[in-house]
Amino acid sequence: MLTHLLAPVVRFALWIYFRRIDVRGRDLIPQDGPLIYVANHPNVMLDTLLLAATIPGQRPRFLAKSTLFKNRLFAFFLRRLGAVAVSRDQDGVRSGNRDMFRQACSILEQGGTLALYPEGGSLAGRRVRPLKQGAARIALRAAISGARPPKIVPVGLTYTAPELFRGEVEVHFGAPIPVADYLETYDSNRQQAIGQLIATIHHRLTLLTWHVNAAELAQPCEDATRFYADHLARDMPADPHLSPRLRAGQVLIRAAHHCADSDPALFATLARRLDAHQRKTRRLDLFESHPPTAPQRPLLAAILALPALYGLLHNALPYALPRLCAHPFRRSPEMIGSIKFAAGAAAFPLYYLLRAGVTSAFCGWSTALFYGLTLPASGLLGLYYKERILASVPLRHQWTLSKRRRGEFERLDGERRALLADLDDLKERYRSGGLH
Description:
The protein has 3 domains: 2-211, 3-Layer(aba) Sandwich (Glycerol-3-phosphate (1)-acyltransferase), CATH 3.40.1130; 216-289 and 412-432, no CATH class; 298-393, no CATH class. 58% of the residues lie in helices and 9% in strands. It has helices at 2-17, 44-54, 72-80, 98-109, 134-145, 183-188, 190-207, 218-233, 244-262, 264-283, 298-314, 316-326, 333-363, 365-389, 403-432; strands spanning 20-24, 35-39, 61-65, 84-86, 113-116, 151-159, 168-173, 177-178. It has 15 helices and 8 strands. Helix 8 crosses helix 10 (264-283) and helix 12 packs antiparallel against helix 13. Strand 6 and strand 7 form a beta hairpin.
C-alpha cells in the first residue's frame, strides 16, 4: 500500500528534478517473473527511485545495505517498502547473508522480482566496476530450487550531469539473460558458473552505459561527452533500444581510447583544452550545453514576465537550500544529486506550508489557500520561462550582464566554436581511419 501511495509522488518529483527522463528497452522485459534487475549504481538514492518509477509491471523488491536498517525510522519504512537487508564487508558487517539469500530465493520462487546493484556500492563515474557475486549466486540458487529459473534484466543508468538540478538521465533496459543457460556448468563447477554469469552481466551493463576502461581517461571522457555528445548524437541513426546520446558517448569513449594509444600528444592537448573550457563554464555557472528548446516568442515572453518573476522570487529560498545541503558532500559526487533531491522534496512542501500558515494568521484561511496554491504553480511557470523562453533569446547575456561579463561569454563562445571545429575534424579522421 505504501509503495502505491508513494509511486505518483516520486514520479512527479523526478519529473520536476530532471529536465528529461529517456527510458528505452522496456519492450525487451519478459511479461512475467521471476526476474532480477541488475543496474550500475552511480547516484545513491536517485538510482533506486528511477528504477522504481520506470520498471513496468510488478514492483521489485530492492536489496539494501544492512546499515540502513540500524536507524529505526529508516528500518520501518524500508521493511514496509519490501526492502531486503544485505550485509557488506565494507560496512564492517561479517555475515554469510543466509537470511538474505533465503528471502531473495523465496521471492523469486514465488514469481516475484528483485532489484540490486551488483557493484556492491555507489560510486560516481563513467565506469562499470567489477561486480560482486551476490546477483549470480542468488540467480543460480533460485534456479536450482524454484520451478522456473529466473531471468536477469540488465539496466544501464546514464546521467548527463548528476550533480545538477534539471539534468537529464537515460534508463536503458537490456535483453534478459536466461539463468537456465548456466545450470549445466553450475552442476559440475559452481564457481565457474558464477564467474561466467558475472562476466555476462558486466559485459551487458557496459553496453548500456558510458563505460571507460582506463581510469586515467575517465575525466577526459566525461569532459568530451558533456561537451560533444549532443552534437555527435545528431548524426546517429535511429535505434529503438539505445538512445542517440548513449551511442554518441560510447563512440567518443572508443575514440578517446584509440587516440590516447595512437597519438598521446594530440590526446593530451585536446584533454587540457576540454578541461579548461569545462572549468570556465562551471565558474560562469553555464552548465547547459543544450540548444534552444523553443523559437523566439517575444509576445509570450512579455505576457509571462511578471508571473514568472513572481514564481522565481517566491521559490528562490527552497531552490537555494538543496545546494547548501549538498555542499558538505562536494567530495562525494555520487551523493550530491540524491542530497539535492531529498532536500528539495522536503524544503518545497514545508516552505509552502509555512508561507500559507503565516498568511492565514493575518489574512484568513481562504486567502492563505489561494496564495498557497499560487506558489507551486508559479514556481513551475518560472521554471518554464527560464528554460523555454529565456533560453531561446539569442545573446540574452548582452542585456543582462556587464560589459566585462559579456566579454568573458564572447571569448568562451569563441573557444567553444574552435573546440567543435577541431572535434569535427578529428571525427572525420577517426571515421576514415586517418587517425593512427
